[in-house]
Amino acid sequence: MRGTAILAAAAGAALAARPATALGPHEILLLANENSTVSLAVAKQYARRRGVPPQNLVRLRVPLPAAGQPAQIGREEFTRLIWEPAQLAARQRGLAGHILAWVYSTDFPAAVRTQPVVSLQGLTFVRNRLPDAKDIEEGRYRSPLFAGPNFPAAPAHASQSFDALAEWLGAEMPLPSMTLGWTGERGNTLEEVLATLERGARSDGTRPTGTVYLVTGDDIRATCRQWQYPAAAAELARLGVRAVVGREFPAGQRDILGLMMGLADVNPAQAGGYLPGAFAEHLTSAAAIFHSANQTKLTAWIRAGATLSAGAVVEPYSIWTKFPSAWFFVHYAAGCTAMESFYQSIRCPLQLLLVGDPLAQPWARRAEVILSGLPQEPATGTFKLTARVAESDRRYWPRWNYWLDGRWAGAGQGLEVRAAELAEGRHSVRAVAYGAGLVRAQVFAEGEFVVARRER
Predict the structure, then answer these.
(1) pLDDT tens digit string along 195-204?
(2) Other Cβ atoms closer than 10 A to 181
(3) Pairing between strand 256-260 and 211-215?
(4) Cα 27 → chain centroid
(5) d(Cα 162, Cα 166) in Å, to the nearest integer?
């Protein structure tokens, strides 16, 4: 470069290994509401804990609902305040090509005032293009990510991670999302939300030995989907996960990996204890209608110790297609993240609010990534980065991708970096190894280097 030289200033090559996940933190767009200090605090803490690149954190300005008012936003407001600015930020930052999902922090609306009402995540999922109103209301809309089964004895598709599904679907790939926590009316405290996210991260790769409880009953909320329980329990047994199908709430049990039931009012605290990564919900009409005191809210499960829960934002009429099926636990046990497990188990996810840690992955496969070649002094030219997995069976991790400053930079066994083409200052790099199969676990390491210049 004419008139400039690359000089030594102060360089660091900080390396950090990260745990495995099927959906990588570099593949999510993390949205925070600038009108809420809690929303910003939760988003920043989640980004640090999960390794979400700084470029993937987008700040939006969305009004907060008044006390006692529905936590809803208009369709035009959704488009103007959320959809368009988030999309613009992803394009301007060079992220749009690899973002597979959105993650909302706290203090976003639960629902959007459409006809009929849909959840914030539902409108995000269909990329702001609503299907037929009757298909939404009657639960006939079929998500392209739904893996079945559709009726007793019907087959279910194999579990897949979002990148594998995106390859199949191409332009038809929807935009899944989740909410990290609900801190509005009848919500959880900041401390409860942060504890939930800590439990999610702590669950990764633990391959827990607890129990999934599938509770039957006579209430329509239970009977509408308990046909799924025997086959799901059998598949879980094949995967080495214990599942119990029965009428009794697991009061006093301290090994709860999952709890699925159907009842308007429950007391989640009656259970003895929920293991990190646990998903629990009770398929009822008002679990995410927070301005109403009617029925138990999904936040009660979070307060009791669950990592994940779900609830409808409008009357769902006990239609099973609008709720997670028991096969959530099958996808979870196959190694998918919580978000991937949710969306493969919900046929019509348009009126549902999913809350908790989307990247929780108790059955993740782990490995250590070693990243080599980072310059210890400020870069003075071209250098080569290489990465390898430090375990005996490296054939499981056949594919590599590299991100430079949060943007995809290349694939293969190494990455050539031309420092002269980079701006002055500190830069980050991330090397990601992808596992074989349809559930593509990820392991990655990241580091930093410095480029400094001055006029001759």
Answers:
(1) 999 999 999 9
(2) 28
(3) parallel
(4) 10
(5) 6
Would 389 be classed as within a structural domain? yes
Whether residue 349 is found in the same domain as residue 375 = no
The partner residues of 354 in beta bridges, in order of sequence, read 310
Does residue 262 lie within any of the structural domains? no
CA dist., res. 323 & res. 351, Å (int): 9
Does a structural domain hold residue 340? yes
The pLDDT tens digits of the residues spanning 227-240 come to 999 999 999 999 99
Handedness of CA 272, 277, 283, 289 (dihedral sign): positive
Among residues of the chain, what percentage have pLDDT more than 70? Answer: 94
Alpha carbon distances (Å) from 260 to 152, 251, 325, 428: 18, 14, 9, 42
- The number of distinct structural domains making up the chain is 2
Residue (of 373, 368, 436, 434) closest to 401 by Cα position = 434
- Asked if the structure places residue 232 within a domain, the reply is no
113 burial (CB, 10 Å; 0-12 / 13-18 / 19+) is middle
**Structural domain ending residue among the three candidates 356, 385, 402:** 356
Nearest to 284 by CA among 303, 273, 298: 298
**Token reading at 313:** 């934002």
d(CA 19, CA 366): 6
CB contact burial 5-42 (16+ within 10 A = b; e otherwise): ebeeeebeeeeebbbbbbbbbbbbbbbbbeebebbbbb
Strand order from edge to edge, sheet including 72-74: 72-74, 111-113, 118-119
Same domain, 184 and 288: yes
pLDDT at position 380 is 77
H or E element at residue 232 = helix 229-238
Threshold 0.90, pTM exceeds: yes
Residues 36 and 175 in one domain: yes
| CA-wise closest residue to 25 among 57, 2, 1 | 57
Same domain flag for 312 and 410: no
Q: What is the CATH number of the domain that holds 426?
A: 2.60.40.10
The domain of 392 spans: 4-20+364-455
Query: Among 302, 333, 356, which residue terminates a domain?
Result: 356
Statement to judge: residues 410 and 444 lie in one domain: yes
